[in-house]
Design goal:
Layout lengths: L1 H12 L10 E5 L4 H12 L3 E6 L3 H12 L8 E5 L5 H15 L5 E4 L16 H25 L6 E6 L12 H20 L5 E7 L6 H4 L4 H10 L8 H13 L9 E3 L1 E7 L30 H7 L4 E7 L1
Parallel strand pairs: 1-2, 1-4, 2-3, 4-5, 5-6, 6-7
Antiparallel strand pairs: 8-9
């Protein structure tokens, strides 16, 4: 994570013109893995962070120290323990954010999740494991989204972003409960986005492909890992730092959020009418932006429908693992 720390320090030294300057963001499950990378990236864009964890306070405190170390005076991050499947604890999570930063929450990123490392078939999935998966992944996301819809500042700039999975469109054996729990989140967030119309709060999902985290490696043999890598278009696992800028993109700009999309790895197309000209300076090198591409280049059999619907929009294409 040293590379991310350098990024935070560089952004901080550039002054106050950061895209998320002093906005308050809660990132669940951010003591490690994808959540940690997202928290560090949002901090590099100027946000104040609540680092949520469920058990390992040491790792959460380390993330907080990384973020606060670049600030000369003001508090930029706190760690808060909370089980996201418990409504009272999620309420306390928002209370802690408001108390620490004297501001309503602007951004909620729900990254906390569990995966059954036995990778059982549906036939061999126990009811207890199924319930545990849905308790954290689906119920937890519901409770966080519900509290976020109530507590996030309205009027513009409010964001709810849930991490799901590309498996929700792949339907691979061995992930029955996990895939179903994440598919439930995707359906819920799409509905939530419509229900939040007029509030200035957007709702999206980011659905990564296989990412090199502890959760990915847990329970997998070398053969299983190799098989997954062989299926990746770029011949490698994604990294947590590949995902974080996608979340940052959604947190900053309204353009693609207005389409209430699920952004799914590996390759995605985002339509928007809010950007002109060059790539924002804060953009990650992992983005490969191409502007003003013709609508007929959209890789979809329904391109004529999309062409009409997207009339007047610019097309931004970037490759993501």
């Amino acid at each position: 994570m040293a590379e991310v720390n350098v990024d935070i320090a560089q952004q901080s030294s550039q002054g106050q013109n950061l895209p998320l300057q002093d906005r308050v963001a809660i990132v669940t499950g951010s003591s490690r893995g994808i959540g940690k990378a997202i928290a560090l990236h949002l901090a590099s864009l100027g946000a104040k962070l609540v680092i949520n964890y469920s058990s390992n306070s040491t790792k959460a405190d380390d993330v907080v120290s990384q973020i606060n170390s670049i600030s000369n005076s003001s508090l930029r991050a706190i760690a808060v323990k909370a089980n996201i499947s418990d409504p009272d604890q999620v309420k306390s999570l928002f209370d802690a954010a408001e108390s620490a930063f004297q501001s309503p929450v602007n951004i909620l990123v729900n990254s906390a999740a569990v995966l059954d490392a036995k990778y059982p078939s549906i036939l061999n999935t126990t009811v207890e494991d199924f319930d545990r998966t849905f308790e954290v992944n689906a119920r937890g996301a519901f409770i966080c989204c519900k509290e976020g819809a109530s507590r996030i500042k309205r009027g513009g700039g409010g964001r709810i972003i849930c991490l799901t999975t590309s498996l929700a469109a792949a339907f691979k054996p061995g992930y029955g409960a996990y895939t179903a729990s994440k598919a439930a989140v995707e359906a819920m967030v799409k509905i939530l986005a419509k229900e939040l119309k007029g509030t200035g709060i957007t709702a999206n999902c980011v659905a990564p492909g296989p990412i090199a985290t502890d959760m990915f490696y847990n329970g997998r043999t070398e053969e299983m890992i190799k098989r997954v890598i062989d299926e990746c278009p770029n011949g490698r696992l994604g990294q947590t730092e590949d995902v974080a800028p996608v979340v940052g993109f959604l947190a900053v700009y309204d353009g693609c959020s207005s389409l209430n999309q699920i952004i799914r790895g590996f390759e995605l197309w985002v339509w928007k009418n809010s950007w002109q000209g060059t790539v924002p300076e804060w953009g990650s090198s992992r983005y490969e932006f191409e502007y003003n591409r013709a609508p007929m280049q959209i890789p979809d059999t329904r391109r004529e429908t999309k062409k009409r619907y997207l009339s007047g929009f610019n097309l931004c294409h970037f490759v993501w693992f």
